[in-house]
Amino acid sequence: MKEKNVILFVRGEQSYDGTDPEVTELMTEGRMTLDGERVELSYEESELTGMEGTTTHFIIEKDQVVLERRGTLRSRLDFRLGGQCSSLYETPWGTMVVDVSTIQLAHRLGEHGGVLELRFTIAINHQVTGENRFKIRVREAARPAAGPA
What we know:
This protein has 149 residues and is mainly β. Helices cover 0% and strands 72% of the residues. A hairpin with a 2-residue loop joins β2 (22-35) and β3.
């Protein structure tokens, strides 16, 4: 198992029928763990995202991705291409069951970073709330310069 410090460039989009997409972008430090064909990306949320005290984890395997948030906010979303998965989503007002339908799932992640792309819809009480996209670019964090010998 290999662990690395990385820089994550996260772009999220939410689209609703007839409206322009709502876009959020974040650049943050995180960790990438490689274990065979499994890759995990993790980072701490901040006050800027409204989820301070929460750690976000993307667990990436060949044909599935799990998005878990742990801390002040807890949720788990499962993504499987061509499939629908029911997941729990915890909010300050209670826990909801949401259905996630994955439209696109692609990743090119390796030892030096790469890209993860997800496109999906979420339905709450069987009502689709719109289409969502995540694009996460990952690169190794710069190594600190060596000190004097």
